[in-house]
Amino acid sequence: MQFDWQEVRRLLIVFVGDVKTEVTFLQPALQRIRETLADTEIYLLIQILPTLVRGKGKGEREREGKNNLFPSPNQGLGDLCNSYMAEEIRSLLPWVDRVFPYATSWQNPAREKELVEKLRQLAFDAAIIFTGTTESSYPLAYLCYLAGISIRVGQSREFGGGVLSHAIKPPLDDLSDRNPHLYLLDSAGFPTARQWPVLITNP
C-alpha cells in the first residue's frame, strides 16, 4: 500500500549518537521535516549514550532524576531524562515540539518495557531513526516495533528482518561530505515542502 506523509499527525524522530557532534547534520534534516509537516506534532527521542553520563556524582544524578519523563523507583543511569537537558537540546533543534533524552545501559528490561508503553500511549503514526556513523538503528527501532509504530524508517547495512519497516542502505561512496540524515530522508521518499510523494509500504 502507499503511505502519505501528510497523513502523519504525530511523528517520532529518534536519534542515537552524540548530539553535539551531529547537531550540524540534524539541524537541516529536522528543519526539512518541520517545513514539510507544518501541522504534525513532532517528538524527538534522543538516546543518551552511557559514556556521556558516566562520572556524574550522586547528587547530580539525583537532581537530574527529578521530573523525568519515564520515572523509576531506582534512580540511576536509566533515569537521566530531565527537563534541563531537554531544553538545552531543544534550543539547538527548535523544529521539534518535545524532546525526550533517554539514557539506558540496555541491561534493565523493565526500563525498556516502560519506554515501550510510553511510546504506545503516545500513538505515533511513524518513526524516523537517525543514527551516528558508528551506531545501530535496530535497538530503538525494535522498541518502536513493540510499541506498535507501523512505519519505522532507518539506515543500516545489516539485515534486520522486519525491525525496520523501511531499511535504507547507506551509499557505497564516502558520506564524509554528505549529510547522512538528509540522505535517509531522500532515500525514503520523504518530500520537501514543495512536493508530496508517498512512501511505498509492504502490503
Entry keywords:
single chain; 203 residues; alpha/beta; globular; disordered C terminus
H/E topology pattern:
EEHEHHEHEHEEHE
Q: Report the sheet-strand fraction.
A: 15-25%
Largest sheet, strands/sense/barrel = 6 strands, parallel
Strand elements, count: 8
How much helicity do the residues have?
25-40%
Q: Give the mean pLDDT.
A: 76
Task: Provide structural commentary.
This protein is α/β, with parallel strands linked by helices and 203 residues long. The longest helix has 18 residues. The strands form two sheets. A six-stranded parallel beta sheet has the order 4-3-2-5-6-7, sandwiched between helices. Strands 1-8 form a two-stranded antiparallel ribbon. Strand 2, helix 1 and strand 3 form a beta-alpha-beta unit.
Q: What order do the helices and strands come in, and which of them pair?
A:
Blueprint: E1 2-4, E2 10-16, H1 19-36, E3 41-48, H2 58-65, H3 83-92, E4 98-103, H4 109-122, E5 126-131, H5 138-146, E6 151-155, E7 166-168, H6 180-187, E8 198-200
Parallel strand pairs: 2-3, 2-5, 3-4, 5-6, 6-7
Antiparallel strand pairs: 1-8
